[in-house]
Design a protein that fits this description.
The protein is an alpha/beta fold. The chain folds into two domains: 9-85, Arc Repressor Mutant, subunit A; 126-284, Glucose-6-phosphate isomerase like protein, domain 1 (Rossmann fold, 3-Layer(aba) Sandwich), CATH 3.40.50. The protein is built from 15 helices and five strands. It has helices at 9-16, 22-33, 35-38, 43-49, 54-63, 69-85, 88-91, 102-123, 126-138, 149-163, 174-182, 200-211, 226-230, 247-270, 272-286; strands spanning 142-146, 168-171, 189-193, 215-220, 233-236. The protein has a five-stranded parallel beta sheet with strand order 2-1-3-4-5, with helices on both faces. Strand 1 (142-146), helix 10 and strand 2 (168-171) form a beta-alpha-beta unit. Helix 2 (22-33) packs across helix 5 (54-63) and helix 10 (149-163) packs parallel to helix 14 (247-270). It is globular, with a radius of gyration of 21 Å.
């Protein structure tokens, strides 16, 4: 699980927010609203601000991977300092007013997209990525599945791996996805992609693949989600949702960043065979481009 020691405090809070209890979520909202103020609060004052108990504040800290309230204050102070130094104070939360002008919209969307990549890179577990790359490189068959926007990301991974000679499929609906997962076995890999981590179709796809002995990989924004829980390996993005779902673009950019890392890792392991496959596939479509 990503912790505040690896990625920004606000990113970690947003990542675990769906799995928090109602009382812990109130503490989270207090921190998200004003980390600078939280840095100055005692544990008693923070509990009162969130209308909860000091014990809940401690549980909230542990949900973030922090040792306790003192470390929360330190991380909140660091977050506030970064907000003062840059543009975070104006647009960090990603809120876009209904009457926002185009400049505000552009800045907010650009902030969400760029920070989705930065925060994902900082929080991504390189050891887990390396293990997944090894599995993909050696897999006899790879099945990738995602619904909606995550489906586009699944297609991208499948297309990339297919181009360098791997047997990989991406399915557009749960019926074909489950059919493919049922045909997997030991040595094969199933990759399920879900930003929220709650998409039941994706959870069922990974569970089916696991029952047939395949390795399972989840790509999600929420480390304590159902899709992460059912997978053998979980790769965690760090994209924050914003008003009018501009964060939906940020989530795809974060997912595609991870996909690119996996693809390059697999391609690098292929050596000369990868180079030959890329050259062969490039030559196959070269004549389809108009000159000039």
């Amino acid at each position: 699980m990503a912790t505040a020691s690896k990625s920004s405090l606000l990113t970690v809070i947003n990542g675990v927010l769906p799995s928090l209890t109602a009382a812990e979520a109130r503490v989270a909202q207090v921190v998200l609203r004003d980390p600078g103020a939280v840095a100055e609060l005692t544990i008693t004052a923070l509990a009162e601000a969130a209308e909860t108990s000091e014990a809940t504040v401690i549980r909230f800290c542990r949900s973030l991977g922090l040792d306790g309230h003192r470390q929360l204050r330190l991380r909140a102070a660091q977050t506030a300092a970064r907000q003062e130094a840059g543009t975070d104070r104006q647009i960090a939360g990603g809120d876009i007013p209904v009457d926002a002008d185009m400049r505000r919209i552009i800045e907010t969307v650009a902030y969400a997209d760029s920070h989705a990549v930065q925060d994902t890179v900082h929080s991504l577990d390189a050891d887990v990525c390396a293990q997944v790359v090894d599995l993909l490189a050696d897999a006899g068959r790879i099945e990738v599945f995602g619904i909606g926007a995550s489906g586009f990301v699944a297609d991208d991974l499948a297309q990339k791996l297919h181009r360098i000679g791997h047997t990989v499929f991406s399915w557009p609906d749960v019926h074909t996805g489950l059919t493919g997962a049922a045909l997997l076995g030991p040595g094969d890999v199933a990759v399920g992609i879900s930003h929220t981590g709650k998409t039941s179709d994706t959870v069922d796809f990974l569970a089916c693949a696991a029952r047939h002995g395949a390795h399972t990989v989840a790509l999600t924004n929420h480390p304590r989600s159902p899709v992460a829980a059912v997978a053998e390996y979980a790769l965690i993005t760090a994209a924050r949702e914003t008003t009018f779902r501009s964060g939906a673009t940020a989530s795809r950019i974060a997912q595609l960043t991870v996909i690119d890392c996996l693809f390059v890792g697999v391609a690098a392991k292929g050596g000369a065979a990868t180079t030959e496959a890329l050259a062969t596939t490039a030559a196959a479509v070269a004549g389809r481009r108009r000159p000039g």
